[in-house]
Amino acid sequence: GAGVSQSPRYKVAKRGQDVALRCDPISGHVSLFWYQQALGQGPEFLTYFQNEAQLDKSGLPSDRFFAERPEGSVSTLKIQRTQKEDSAVYLCASTLGTPYTEAFFGQGTRLTVV
Amino acid sequence: SQQGEEDPQALSIQEGENATMNCSYKTSINNLQWYRQNSGRGLVHLILIRSNEREKHSGRLRVTLDTSKKSSSLLITASRAADTASYFCATDNQAGTALIFGKGTTLSVSS
Predict the structure, then answer these.
(1) Average pLDDT over residues B11-39
(2) How many CA atoms lie within 13 A of A64 on its CB side?
(3) What are the tens digits of pLDDT across the range A7-16?
(4) In angstroms, rounded to a whole number, what is the distance separating the alpha carbons of residues B92 and A98?
(5) What is the pLDDT of residue B40?
(6) What are the start-end ranges of the E strands in chain A?
(7) B8 preceded by cis ω (within 30°)?
(8) Cβ within 8 Å, pair A45-B42
(9) CB contact under 8 A, B42 and A101
């Protein structure tokens, strides 16, 4: 595709529900990142993939958060037993090579936990 | 945790004026990037400056980098209403596995 695509754009979940957020990076991009952005804040790093390998998951806030990229392209961020504090915009970004190059961002998924 | 800190947090100017935003970071870096985010949208890359560069230009944007002070500045000249957005600096983390963003500067340009 032309850019990074995320789905759904909006998700409302009841507390305790599991959710899955999808990211389609730009074709051929090696690196993929997930970020969490609270209102009025900068994006907070969650996790990083290089192809299918998850090289850094130090930003995942709890073991309820899980991310995968099994074939080195599409990635899914899963949040189990959602809590109200999980409400945020989840951004996905990809880069052609290493993390040191220009990152292309998707529009994000706005998750609201009620 | 966030590597970069932008200053000021908010900036309001008139069209035609210049806007300067600053970013400070904590550890050594390979490069520093600036991004713009319009309300409710994803981030858009503006410019990248490498650690061995001191200044870079792109259109109305001018970025400086002072690695001895661990700081960078973004200057937008002749601002327009369309420049209204949040601006973030981003650096790689020590492990080289992520881009870490600051909290951003919210710029408001009024006509």
Answers:
(1) 94
(2) 14
(3) 999 999 999 9
(4) 10
(5) 78
(6) 5-7, 10-13, 19-24, 31-37, 44-50, 53-56, 65-68, 75-79, 88-95, 104-105, 109-113
(7) yes
(8) no
(9) no
